[in-house]
Amino acid sequence: xxxxxxxxxxxxxxxxxxxxxxxxxxxxxxxxxxxxxxxxxxxxxxxxxxxxxxxxxxxxxxxxxxxxxxxxxxxxxxxxxxxxxxxxxxxxxxxxxxxxxxxxxxxxxxxxxxxxxxxxxxxxxxxxxxxxxxxxxxxxxxxxxxxxxxxxxxxxxxxxxxxxxxxxxxxxxxxxxxxxxxxxxxxxxxxxxxxxxxxxxxxxxxxxxxxxxxxxxxxxxxxxxxxxxxxxxxxxxxxxxxxxxxxxxxxxxxxxxxxxxxxxxxxxxxxxxxxxxxxxxxxxxxxxxxxxxxxxxxxxxxxxxxxxxxxxxxxxxxxxxxxxxxxxxxxxxxxxxxxxxxxxxxxxxxxxxx
Length: 354
Hints:
Layout: H1 2-10, H2 13-29, H3 35-41, H4 48-60, E1 64-65, E2 74-75, H5 77-86, H6 95-102, H7 111-126, E3 129-133, E4 141-150, E5 153-160, E6 165-170, H8 178-192, H9 197-224, E7 228-231, E8 239-242, H10 245-248, H11 251-280, E9 287-290, E10 302-310, E11 316-325, H12 330-352
Antiparallel strand pairs: 1-2, 3-11, 4-5, 5-6, 7-8, 9-10, 10-11
Helix pairs in contact: 1-5, 2-4, 3-4, 6-12, 7-12, 8-11, 9-11
């Protein structure tokens, strides 16, 4: 987060150490940290009054908060983000944690069972909730269907050429009708056969770009002729406004306008379809989400630490993570999640090469 990094760079050494000690104390105990306890922690001999002044400055910057008038301070979400990005000291993986994770290797014969066991081990080691995203199936596609379940829920059925079938529930774009979903499925299936989901998504993105260029070319011809103007040019809401069409346009120009209208409709449908593909094929990267940075956990005040795992080609095929309170022991959790991701990637790669 750029804002947090800018604030960190402006802090002097004393403020930085006070801030770091407050966050570390809070993450360890879950309790507000006061000025008197900080006088025993700091490397520099500073009075409690001076420390209180520093903490007030940090509170003014939005890095600390005071739960009660006379209590110590706790880090805000911005403060936690700054600590994680700039001051977090990641420990080496503890041997006992490594042994517990390694003990899951080879227990299950199938990938699903293996991931379930690793998820249980990760949860036990971290005492948090584990998250395991299974590998994406990258075989060529055979057929895709969309089924409306409710106004805000739909099912996509993906049939792969190797016989594998996946069902995924997702939230469709607002206002999309069952007939529009059928039309989207027909369009996708005309392009899908023999392509993977990743390939198909790229093809759809190119279709959108091509239609956009075609619209721009046709509209430019009308504008050059003085028949139409762009309203709101350069904004997301730009529209083509036609002036005096009934009086000024001859038959050929009318056909051009119909073509533009048709292209806009086609472009909008392709945007919906591209969104379908994005919702049904989403990849995860290496990130730490704190509090409201993750919409799923914003109300519960939780954090999510996620690390991807890769196949033999160094391609991300899934992810593992830990969900817990925002006062997670990040220094310990990060190497555990990182090691687990490496372990899963190695196991899946080994199994695929047998």
